[in-house]
Amino acid sequence: MANNGSDYHIINSKYNNIALRYLLGFPSCIISAVALLLNAWLIERTKSIKISKRYQKLALIFVIYGFLEGLLVSKADYFPANIINKELFIHYFVFTPLLVKAFVGFIIYYLLMKVIDTFSWEQEEKLSRLEKHRIATMERRKLGREIHDSIIQELFATGLKIEYLMHTQEGQAKEVLGQIKEDLNNTITKIRNFISSSSLDKIEFEDLNNNLEQMVQRFNENQSIKIELESTISPYQIGYLTPEKSTQIYYVIQEALTNIIKHSDAEFAHVLLEARYDYLEIIITDNGKGISPDKLNPKKQLGLSSMKERAENAGGALTIEKLARGTRIKVKIPWEELKNEEKNQGIDS
């Protein structure tokens, strides 16, 4: 230690290894552990308790490994290597720290595989939801065909018979038959509308961004207000919404943009979809003249009433705020909660 010149680290190369382990080995493991703990906290807020505990265990193992790799260095005549070193560890525990590091490394590998299994389970869950949606869609279309081929055809045939009788009757009887025929036509129209709405494909949550992008593009091509769409929804988002809720969100945004185009006199509108821990937040703002207080009552405005009803149907809430310039609409839709039993079974399998 007498030589303190510029060639010190060349002559005493073992001290370079100690310094690197202090500066890189230990801090990197601690940083990894902190990152894992933060992720565990976020995941626990989404009610994925088992996944969160795996992250916590992995964080603890990284701390232990950081201690073994970063602090148990060869003995040296400076702090802390003169107090905490591998020679002292061998003296107290008899065996070398390498055995412990090998064991800890195996545990890290095992827990990492469990975390990877978690992501595999999430993908399988998405595929399962898509398959259920496909089956439900096929059933709706099958029901629509059966209604069309049986009930509507019979009603139509009855209408033809009434039309024939109308040509053979006079006076009040003819008038009554005309009313019956009109009622039948109205019934057929309602049934057809029902078939159409029931057979429509719902919007999968994974496809919501793409559908909204297409909607915004159509609006931008056909009117002068510049509309921008921003989304923080990731393909690996833990939160999930059913196709029914995703469809309601789509139509809420469509109605809001339609109102902006018709009434706001704005030059710019912005749609933000932000994935929070417990819910999906949609914020729609414009820089127009703002909504007047007398129109803030959804009961008096059909468009606002429709938006509020759709938000409530999706289990959320809608608020409208007049800004200094423009209007802000906020919608909060809580994530769909999977039953803990189903989630735990999927993770454990």
Give the rounded overall mean pLDDT: 77
Q: How many structural domains?
A: 3
CATH superfamily placement of the largest domain: Histidine kinase-like ATPase, C-terminal domain
Count every beta strand, where a strand is a DSSP E run of 2 or more residues.
5
String of helices and strands? HHHHHHHEHEEHEEH
**CATH fold annotation of the largest domain:** Heat Shock Protein 90
- What is the CATH first-level class name of the largest domain? Alpha Beta
Helicity range of the residues?
A: 55-70%
Continuous helix count: 10
Radius of gyration over C-alpha positions, nearest whole angstrom: 33 Å
Give the structural class: alpha+beta
Strand order of the largest sheet: 1-2-3-5-4
Strand content: 5-15%
The major pleated sheet works out as: 5 strands, mixed
Task: List low-confidence stretches.
Answer: 338-349
Per CATH, the architecture of the largest domain is 2-Layer Sandwich
> Rough shape?
elongated
Describe this structure in words.
The chain is 64% helix and 10% strand. It is of the alpha+beta class and 349 residues long. The protein has three domains: 8-94; 133-199; 205-341, Heat Shock Protein 90. It has a five-stranded mixed β-sheet with strand order 1-2-3-5-4. Helix 8 (243-263) links the parallel strand 1 (226-231) and strand 2. The radius of gyration is 33 Å and the shape is elongated. It starts with 7 loop residues before the first helix and ends with a helix. 19% of the residues are buried. Mean pLDDT is 77; it is low at 338-349.
